[in-house]
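Hey,

Quick one before I head out. I ran the complex with NAP overnight. Inputs first:
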Amino acid sequence: MSLSSPTVLDRPLTCLFEDPGLPAYRVPQALIELYGGSIGFPELCLYANFVASIDGIVALEQRDRSGTVISGGSAADRFVMGLLRACAEAVVVAGGTFRATPNHRWIADHIFPALADAFGRIRHDLKRAAQPTLVVVSARGDIDTRHPPLEGPSLVLTTREGEARLRGRVPNSCKIRALSEGQPSVVSVIDAVRAEGFRTVLTEGGPSFLGQLVAEQLLDELFLTVAPRLVDPALEGSRKSLVEAADVLGRVGADGRLLSLRRHRSYLFLRYRLGEVDGHE
Ligand SMILES: NC(=O)c1ccc[n+]([C@@H]2O[C@H](COP(=O)([O-])OP(=O)(O)OC[C@H]3O[C@@H](n4cnc5c(N)ncnc54)[C@H](OP(=O)(O)O)[C@@H]3O)[C@@H](O)[C@H]2O)c1
């Protein structure tokens, strides 16, 4: 594979800082060169990946595919998304994100097809299934059951009402689990993900769901791409920041310690461990 191929990346990410104690999977050399190092996770880890504008906006109301609009379609951001999906046993998305992203597939090959083989090697060496299981979290069960990702390994976590709404309408590849009568707590959602045997788990949102995870101190790591743009509120209407509608300031799980910092052109790629502080000056 040629790293200079325009279908891959025009240049590698530059690693500006990395905590020396991070786990490192066996990763194909081409990916190590592009990422500027290896990647790995503690065995039990829930990690999130988001892209935000410089002013911290992650979602644009009345806009499908907010992430793509904010990231500007950055190839480096798509590469990191692919790498993080390649490491995960399951990818969790909440109902709002599922509805906002029609026809998306939450697998590495979909977001960065040119590196599908290399991503597949990571999974093979980790003895992971060929693709991560998609977990959709929807209390109402209000999801389009013709959505292509449900044709791969998938699971919907919902309420008894949502289960009744979806039963018989999803493909055989998709399981449905009712967790409660009313909206389940985010703790019970993550317990249900763990009960399926998934230990290394990625969540790609959205912000309302992420806010609950942070408030309950369930999120171990946050990968955040800062895209080099500001968002004009007058143009975009109401917008959402990373942890929406969650009063997390001052909570233990809302403070982070920087684990790594990378750069590609004017994009920054941050990795934090949450619930740990580095001390203050
Ligand atoms: N910039 C980025 O990286 C990024 C990443 C992800 C998403 N986004 C954007 O974020 C927006 C969507 O985010 P959002 O905050 O509006 O919605 P969201 O967090 O994706 O989804 C909220 C929905 O998830 C379900 N839900 C949440 N907590 C639940 C719980 N404890 N139990 C059961 N169901 C639960 C409910 O679904 P039901 O209503 O179905 O019951 C709720 O309405 C989209 O515009 C998307 O493009 C951006």
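The radius of gyration is 18 Å.

Talk tomorrow,
K.
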